[in-house]
Amino acid sequence: MMRRICGVIYLWVTVYCNRADAEPARRGLESNGYNGLETILGSDDTKTVAFPWPTVSSSAAAENLPGGYVCAPIGSCTTASNSNEIDIRIITPGSTNPCPRGQTLCATPTGASQCGLRFATNLSNVDGLASPGAFPWQVYLVNQTGYAGSGVLINEYHILTAAHKVYLNGASPEMVGVYLGVHNPQQLTVRHAVHRILLHPNFNPTTLFNDIAILRLSAAITPLPQMLVNSVCLPSQHQVFEGQACWVAGWGQSGYVTTNTLQEKRQVQVPIVNYNMCYASMSSESVLGANAKRYLDPIGELCAGGQGSRDACMNDGGAPLTCEVNGRFYVAGLVLWGKGCGVPGIYGVYANVTNYVNWISSAMALLTG
């Protein structure tokens, strides 16, 4: 269960923000294993600094966990009905808790597919700062130089991203790291290793045709409601998203000419348009002119946006464009390229994921072998 208290997101913990209650609250947190809380209190209740976001245990103790369980911060498990009620699975009295101090056993989701579901509540539905947990499938990628781009978790082992984000690391997957459940890049948690990288065989780094890649992780990722991590749904080969307003989010620049430092994830809703509208815009002499046919793929790419100040931008490459259908989110596209950012009448260009679902299936089979 999540609560926003004093302008800060906490997992389940009630934090009091006046001087009289500050010290007991801090001690209460520390007694449950939260040792990073600092309070800077003034005359009001708006100056609390959050403790580091708690993470699911990845220590050697995890080897002693019963099947279907993970270690999670006390009070952060969700119920089987995915409500806001706390649902801690208490171990047998007298037995030894295999989890680190401040954590307890939590059952992981089983049964029907969890893909495309969001576990957080009270999410923002307006452009701007994204709520923590709004895009639990979004991946934060790093390489040997730092932040590399974004991607999307499609199942427990595999991540989709733009090929141009990882093609220089194709032969050295150990140089790429994956973070999940990220909202603020200044608070990264567990780095997940990449076992293999597979680029689309027809990827063209000049035109960005077939700009799609799959990363296979070294270890499986379990959907974790308590950590706001889940996979997105893959569309069917013939699924149509044209005309739908979908979401793109990321840690990229807020404007084409800005170089702002990466901060909390931001989101924007953009409509998906047909190829003819996109080509008409891109073929304008002030945009691409005759080069529009060279760079715009009518099959492997789709276009979205076209409204002023509503667009992906620099450093958002590989981020998923996700569309909600019957309560689940499907990945329709991956951020590829554009001309400027948020220019009225000019669309952002995305990999058209529906065109690649057969390749994705065969690629995952190859990576598994």
UniProtKB/TrEMBL annotation:
It holds the Pfam family Trypsin. It comes from the Eukaryota. The keyword Signal applies. The keyword Disulfide bond applies. GO terms for biological process: proteolysis. Keywords: Disulfide bond, Signal. Residues 1-22 form the signal peptide. Residues 125-365 form the Peptidase S1 domain. One of its GO terms (molecular function) is serine-type endopeptidase activity. This is Peptidase S1 domain-containing protein.
